[in-house]
## 1
Amino acid sequence: MKKEGTEVKIKSLQKALQVLECFVEKQPLGVTEISEKMGLYKSNVHNILSTFKAMDYLEQDPDTGKFRLGTAVFALSRALRENLDISRIVVPFMRRIAEEAGEVVYLAIPREDEVVYLEAAYPESQKLSGSIVTGERAKMHCTSVGKAILSSMDPRERQKLLQEPLEAFTQYTITDRKELEEELQRTAERGYGLDDMELLFGIKCVGVALVNHEGKPEGGLSISAPSLRMSEEKIQVFAEILHRYKVEIQKRL
């Protein structure tokens, strides 16, 4: 993904990385699929994929011939996470939150109109690995942590991020811009965001923004649980837990 205001110096490298980015949306992929999607010759796509395969950025299924992301991508992702200050600061707190709440806890950071999930912490009772969320993205308008981050932003900055139509992911997703603004106002007033089965049916989340010393949201934390376990009473309990740890975390940001 090219940043605005930057100049691409090596077009061939840009093309190769754009091929690699195709795997963010879907895996596995074949030469023909990528060729048609990007409008490139199959021979060019094959050469790019073969090079990434040789460097372990892609793996190829011997039966189907299709490709998926390889271990070298994971190594880069892990290095990025480990060098982000917010991860180093927040992860120890996440483990304590997960045990106290008895539910999974996520750390996410804002990227344009999305949040990117960096880490997850599970209570001992669930015995799951948090690595499954690494790099996953979700639109801000349908996640608790995204709403909390949006409500902490300057209104003009928020408007720039929300220019595109609001996509519906379930029947509960807010797609009306005025309704979303009202929800963000409620989020700011109560100090936490809610995802009421708006991203995934059957899953509810409570989220808070993590704001640095300049007053800008650097990321956010959320507690997620099946909707049957997320009563109004539980929501209030989880919001209190998140707020308590948020105060401690923000002292370090």
## 2
Amino acid sequence: MATRPSKAANASSAEPPRVGDTLAALRQQQSLSLDELSRRAGVSKSMLSQIERAQANPTVAVVWRLANALGVPMGDLLGNTPAPSAPVIDLVAVHATPSLRSPDGLCELRILGPIDLAGQFEWYHLSLQVGSALESQAHEDGTREHLTAVSGTLEVRSGDEKQRLKIGETARYAADRPHSIRNLGKTAASAWLVVVHVA
């Protein structure tokens, strides 16, 4: 899934972090070429180039790979400042929740899962405007997604198969092949999306 980035969230904005700028700066600090970072992270050179030029924004799983390859915490790429200690209850304000948008700006994924679970287990709140679709390329082998419709009329496609969801229904499907989530209704739609990667 590739989406277009925007400025990092702050007290007055809920826009997604500008991952590309940070990635380029970290790569240059370590004198790494795109080829070398691509080899270390297992992410294609073309995708890295698109991310750095703000033409695409990576999934949390890809950010996790890049952070490992660069030897930095994921929060450094997402522009987050780690808390000094873990509280009993960690409340994340709405404006502090990072989000990703599709290139046309009609789909938004609010990243609800903690950074330390990225690449293993991720969950999002998905919003789709009328007529929009969230198109995703194949993830790692064995990856599955679980989509629960909250409002609107949604259709899930995984490979050549399609399934329409009613409000409250959950679709579980393979995400290691091209897949999409489409709003077929006449109003905005929303859903909870959980991504489970193979350990």
## 3
Amino acid sequence: MAAIAKEGKGGRSKTFDMVYIAVFAVLIAICSWISIPMVVPFTLQTFAVFLAVGVLGGKRGTAAILIYILLGAVGIPVFAGFSAGMGVILGNTGGYIIGFVGSGLVMWAMETLLGKKTWVLALSMAVGLIVCYAFGTVWFMSVYAKSSGAIGLVTVLSWCVIPFIIPDVIKIMLALFLAKQLSRVVQID
């Protein structure tokens, strides 16, 4: 039993870290199922991604994102619309899902370089969103071109990015606020 619950920094068990990572992976899945009906419907998936990294930190938050993606890749319906499988990841919008890892890595890097101040977290969330948008947009253009022919950048941005900017900024603000509140309860080193 002692091997399972090895002490981490600050005397905390690594088991707690694994539980927190699992809980946030599930939270990302649950938030991906919640669809807000608007002109272009959106999910709360990006909110949960930013909240995971905001609360757990870059390393554990990115681990939660990776577990979420791996669950979907093996067929567990954790993606938007209760979808799953490599077909979703390799599809037109799969780059935005993979882009979550890029967001987590950018946030982790900024946290490592600049610390865990609120302004750093806010800036890292914004940069992380831009990384996700960039990766997903390039992916969309590539996959779409293979199946349907070439498509312009402005068209892809108008389909996949521009309608989501305001909702995503709101999700970042909410994630930032909740991350600061939850960080008082969830003690991560």
